[in-house]
Amino acid sequence: MINYLKNEEKIILSLRSLYSKYGYLPYKMNKFEEYDLYAKNKEFLIGDGVITFTDTHGKLLALKPDVTLSIIKNATEGKGTKNKVYYSENVYRISGKTREYKEIMQTGLECVGDLDLYDTYEVVTLAKKSLEAVSESYVLEISHMGILSSLLDSVSANEEYRQEALECIKKKSKHEIKALSQKYGINEAKTKLLSDFISIYGEPVSVISSLEKMNVSEDFALYTKELKELTSLLMTDDKTGKIRLDFSIVNDMNYYNGIVFNGFLSGVSECVLFGGRYDKLLKKMGKGLAGVGFAIYTDLLEGFHEKQNAYDVDVLLLYSDKTAPSVIKNEIERLQKENKSVSAQKSIPSKLRYKEKIEI
Fold it and tell me: N or C: which end of the chain has fewer CB within 10 A?
């Protein structure tokens, strides 16, 4: 039966099975939440569009653009405990491709509670395995917001400079860093420190080695040690070289801290998986917890699978008004026993892609 599912449906089923094996429980939510939940955390949302309406009691509600905020709101607190959930939910937001509102299937997981290094490792590993479930041609890029923050702390306390410097780091632009340093009066030694940092990218062992040689601060060294411990665990599982460290991954420092990561598939120009540690968001929402998780943007996979699969069905079965129903039934059953999908039609649909045509 699974052979007749759409590719997206097959992937979601395999991901649910994967997450369940690690003890994650399914999470369901309503189509809408109170708008206030999203209004207070707009910077955390992907995109800037939230569809709102007023219910029969005059309360302003929103079609959910995100699942993480709802999971955090409902997370239980307790020493040593963790809320481990996964979801496949439709969210409503502006599509990155069409810039129109769209209902998007989003699959992901969250681990919220009293977390340690293993929990971060587990979530990053599941992100890697999730990409593998879609395609063997993938890359998982990892960064650390603590490393970025402590580096900027050592250069300047000026918030405007920090924000502009982050944009330069995103673009990996040494030229813009030098121009920015001149604008804000940053000395040559600190400018060189940032320029050297921008150049650091690649496989974990060499990147960590470069970081360890940078004499920045105690916090920088501490975060580098944490990243080294995490990547050492990950590398015991990764023999394919699909993991890269890339500090141009920059998320909102008001929400994220620690490890952040993006996933890419060959043939898709945009990031298809996005995740990280968001303890600051939990604190902002009044929760004394830590959190780490990721989401897969299934709308981006639609185009990916269209490229990967040339046919909608294996067989187009054409019949006439004179064909007996029993003949159609027997032919379809014969083809299905050969594990072929069949579309029975009287004429050829204009948009149907088929591998084989049979007329009876």
Answer: N
Show the tokens assigned to 118: 């293993």
Domain match, 16 and 115 both:
yes
Q: With pLDDT > 70 as the criterion, what percentage of the chain qualifies?
A: 92
The CATH number of the domain holding residue 171 is 3.30.930.10
CB within 8 Å of 92: residues ≥ 6 apart:
51, 63, 64, 65, 101, 102, 103, 104
- Structural domain harbouring 153: 138-260
**Number of domains composing the chain:** 3
Task: Looking at the structure, tell me whether residues 97 and 21 fall in a common domain.
Answer: yes
Cα 142 to Cα 144: distance, rounded to the nearest angstrom: 7
Task: Assess whether pLDDT exceeds 80 at residue 16.
Answer: yes
Burial 170-197 (b: 16+ CB within 10 A, else e): eeebbebbbebbeeeebeeeebebbbeb
Q: How far apart are CA 15 and CA 31, in angstroms?
A: 22
**Cβ(255)–Cβ(293) below 8 Å:** no
pTM of this prediction? 0.81
**Segment 133-167, tens digit of pLDDT:** 888 889 999 999 999 999 999 999 999 999 999 99
Assess whether 67 and 106 both reside in one domain: yes
Instruction: Let me know whether 81 and 142 are in one domain.
Output: no
What are 323-339's pLDDT values in tens digits? Answer: 999 999 999 999 999 98
Helix, strand, coil share (%) of the chain residues, nearest 5: 45, 25, 35
Residues 10 and 103 in one domain: yes
How far, in Å, are 261, 304, 346 from residue 264 at the CA level?
Answer: 10, 11, 42
Write out the E strands in 165-216. 201-202
Same domain, 250 and 187: yes
Q: How far is CA 280 from the centre of its chain?
A: 19
pLDDT, position 359: 93
